[in-house]
Fold these 3 entries.
Entry 1:
Amino acid sequence: MRFLLMANGDYGDLEWYRQFKDGFERIICIDGGTTWAMRMKLIPHRVVGDMDSISQEAVGYASSLGAEFTVVPREKDDTDFQLGLELAQRDDATGVVVWGGTGSRLDHSLSNLFSATSLVLRGIEVCFQSPREDIYLINRRLVLPGKVGDTVSLITLSDESRGVSLRGFQYPLLNATLNGCWQWAVSNVIAEPNPEVEIGSGVVAVIHYRQLP
């Protein structure tokens, strides 16, 4: 099943998301992400978090639609986003798309990306979507939907990622090793339609910019 996780980060143009709104079997809203679901008129199946950033209007909206609430203390070890990832895994998600998973809080953005690798290692596909870029977390093969000339960066989220190959890019790679302490696969360019990224081991964030900031 394909799940949508709605966090409370940056969204940008809300109209952009409407093209995807019918593509999910279940929607999990993470605290203030429920407010964004309300603005987009999406139906949340679950709401999880310590409720420190959700509006009362959004609480009423989700409750009226029958959403299941998982309310946790503010003082806890796991972040609200990590709890959302755990719920998706327990509910047998095969793929997870994240909206609002990155933003102005660098600590939250990094924590969300690294924490989501736990799903990738269990065979669950994960992609962070926004109007500006898509971030695919992969440990196998990806045929990247994108246009010739688009910018793509690879960031390893493991200590090392081995067997990294790129085809259809301005700067190809063949069985390369990416080191987490010295990232060097940044700002590549799509040179051919349907470029491919292949990973032998480790987890890599493939960041595809539709438009550069």
Entry 2:
Amino acid sequence: MALTATERTTLKRLPERGSHERATVRSILDEGIVCHVGFATERGPVVIPTTYGRVGDDLYLHGSPASRMLRTLKHGVPVCVTVTLVDALVLARSTFHHSINYRSVVVFGTAVEVTDPDEKAAALAAFVEHIVPGRTADARPATIKEVSGTLVLRLALAEASAKVRVGPPIDDEEDLALPVWAGVLPFTARPGPARPDAFVPDDVEVPAYVAAYDRPCS
């Protein structure tokens, strides 16, 4: 089922790369780790990188109640959240046509504060599961004090779109005969070996979800 296209989510340039498919938007969000949150302040526009979690068609942001970003957004300031995945460098025969293969999502809306303790706890667990699936079944859950001391905001994925660039370079026809290498240089993000901290007992093994860690990939 597709999201409803709006004036803000309808692509004007290269619209063939755009998508309002809910599954596409979700898959990109689920593979990403960091989002950028843009909003206006009295001192001008601000863009803040942070982590996020998704539950269904809701995106969650969290942090300290002292966070300027969260304190601003909870009062109804319009927000734009973006997530971008870089898949490859695209090297063309001309510098003009160099590009990047990528997948991105842009979400517009107004965030609301989550006050229900159960929803807050579920959202905080979703943040952990988003970064390291399987971790919440192993680590100590957040206490009531920790949940109450965390500010959580919910942003509905009602006004969102994805944009994707795939494929080889698009060179001008007259450049195809140039003796210049052209093609795609794929990018992959892979974790290195897990390194325990100094307080892990010798008989505690690396969990399987850490040893075999990988990001979901569409």
Entry 3:
Amino acid sequence: MAQLDGICAAVRTEFDRVDEAREEALATSRRIIRNAATTIKHVHRREFAEAAALLAETKQMAAELIAGVAGFPTIAGAGFVQDALKECAEALILTAVVRGEDVPLPAEAGLPPAPYLNGMAEVVGELRRHVLDLIREEDPARAEPVLSTMDDIYHAIMSFDYPDAVSLGLRHRADAARGLVERTRGDLTNALQAARLERRLADLRARLPEDTS
């Protein structure tokens, strides 16, 4: 085993490369997740200029992350990398939907398909929050197209029947999305019915003669 020292030295050099790439990817992933969360917060507050600036930064970091792990398959497939890309996709898709813009294709967004679809699935929860905000603002009519989008997303992601190893758990997120869509449908139906009743009562009050006694 005279060559043992050489074997260990070669392996150690490779492990050092992998470890350095992993640490860099981990740090970048954390920044992406923070930026994506802040972008989503800005979108819900209708602070679209701030959201757009932060989203551009997040997309750039996602591109750097993908490039940085390209030569390291074990890192590229790691959960923390896929989660970061998923969060980037969620912020990107939510911004487009709320602003009424076209949702980019995964290739246009520079994101792999599986985390992109999982990010789309999680947008359903953020859109539910958007619907509830509109209901609280007494504007349920504007929430109807949002619910329709939620329903479209659910049916789209349900069409992908692949193992978790391929879809990264998309089926579980699709099941969660179904419950969110149905609860939101119930909330919005109640709000629309209440709004119609209020309009009818207001119309009835306007038709009643004034009390002159």
